[in-house]
Amino acid sequence: MRLYQALGLQAKEIITVVGAGGKTSALICLARELAAMGRRVVVAPTTKMLLSQLRQLAEPVITSDTASLAAGVAAGLKRENLVTCGSGVTRQGKVTGLDAAAVAALSHLNIDYLLLEGDGAAGALLKAPAGHEPVIPPVTTLVVTVAGLPVLGRPLAAPFVHRPRLVAGLLGREEGSLVTAHDVARVLAHPHGGRKGVPPAARWVVLLNQAEDYELLRAGRAVAGAILAAGGEKVVLGAVATPAPVRQVFLGQAVRPGPVGVIVLAAGAGERFGGGKQLLSIAGQPMVRQAVATALAAVPGNVVVVLGHEAGRVAAALEGLAANIAYNPGYRQGLSTSLKAGLAALGPESRVALFVLADQPGVTPDVITRLAGAYQQEGKKIIVPVYQGRRGNPVLIDRDLWPEILVLQGDVGAREIIRAHPEEVLTVAVDCPGILKDIDTPIDYQTWLEGK
């Protein structure tokens, strides 16, 4: 999944990126993605940015004259679809930023995206803005606030925190104390922290960067939950300096999550089908969308979709659904990796995980509801549906057994856990043949369409 997809970019945007922990890397990643798609992109600072960083994208157009700047950028876009610019260069090798007039002039050019870096962080992982920053033009349509997750557990001090005195002031904490997930969330959501200067009409997204292993993903989930609880719209967990820049996407939920979390497994390449299986049309909509809609109908507010193969196209098919997205960069290593990615995306309120296969469009909301109800009433740790004496999917597993899932390797799934704990298995009879029917091959799909 690409960063531009996770951010939910619209057709034409003015995007200002602020914060710490990989802000410039995020800007560069986003610019390269958009340019590779043929979009016309301009990148510039509004404060200061290293000349060497802009040169990673293109040799910048440098002039303090607004008309000359606009003319230079327009000329550059005739040669390439990615142009960088600034108003000057300091003796320290930093490009000075554009003022409001220059931003306005560029916004009137024939461009698709204007990407702006709105402050500095001296290489730190977390920051609070000084009085003169961030510089976010009023015409900005999207503000992305960045923080680096490795700040967790580090001292509230340099070099981990930029302007630690200001951060400590926002938190009411002592400098030098260890940074917690709650601290990061409070700083990012604070009107004088990560939300400072966001124009009233602009969208606001938080990017929690450097989420490169399970522990950081789990910690990032706690930060994301606190940000969303404080009124955040969307939080992206990413690793923008890697080939998999997006790992999870969390949306603000209107419904408070309950103890049952649903994980829709939709990462596979569908090799037996020949690819593209998740986007097959079922009752007039993509199969993956139907699976997620079914899960949301049964458990609103706590559904995670694990993506892998063609993640961007699959994510687009889920547009408008209130489900969180987890990206599994290791999906080719087998089903176990998707189980782990899904568990990492569930919040602490989830006591059980109900694993739904995206290629079983016949599963109904009633099946999910009955499994969840049986868990709450009977107290067993594994709940499995049965149709006419045959076990099927989805399968529900209690949090106490999750550590055993986290050590699975390769293309194995919940069956291994079921075999290891027969005493904890409760079967629930359901009137739904769909729990037994996967669409794995073109023949399976044709049979489904024919209603056999």
Could you explain how this protein is built, in words?
- This protein has 452 residues and is α/β, with parallel strands linked by helices.
- It folds into two domains: 3-39 and 112-251, Rossmann fold (3-Layer(aba) Sandwich); 260-449, Alpha-Beta Complex (Spore Coat Polysaccharide Biosynthesis Protein SpsA, Chain A), CATH 3.90.550.
- Helices cover 31% and strands 23% of the residues.
- The chain is built from 15 helices and 24 strands.
- It has helices at residues 3-7, 23-36, 51-54, 66-79, 100-107, 164-171, 181-189, 214-229, 287-298, 311-317, 335-345, 365-378, 402-406, 414-420, 442-449; strands at 13-19, 41-45, 48-50, 61-62, 82-86, 88-89, 94-96, 113-117, 126-127, 142-148, 161-162, 203-209, 234-238, 246-251, 260-266, 281-282, 285-286, 303-307, 324-327, 352-357, 382-387, 390-391, 395-398, 425-429.
- The strands form four sheets. It has a 17-stranded mixed sheet that branches.
- Helix 7 (181-189) packs across helix 8 (214-229) and helix 8 runs parallel beside helix 11 (335-345).
- The longest helix has 16 residues, at 214-229.
- The chain starts with a helix and ends with a helix.
